[in-house]
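so my prof wants the structure for this chain in the tokens format not the other one, which i didnt know existed until like an hour ago. anyway here's the sequence
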Amino acid sequence: MRADKVARLLDSLSEAQETLIAEFIPAGARSHFLASRREALLGLRSLLDAAIDRTNDPSEAAGRKSTSRFRGSIDITD
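here's what i got, hopefully its the right format
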């Protein structure tokens, strides 16, 4: 299958998914699902922050709990 056909197929599937969500999942439920997704991502951020802290100073990071939910931006370059 050619790349343009694959791209169109993926676009169609994405549109179908959005339509199904909009038609069959009530707005209140969508709101809860989005909130739970955000909380899961924040949990992952906390895990990553703790792992990063341990690489800096393992003895200091073991007894410290992060009080910040956001530490700032991270510049990632190749």
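also thought this was worth mentioning. The chain has three helices and no strands.
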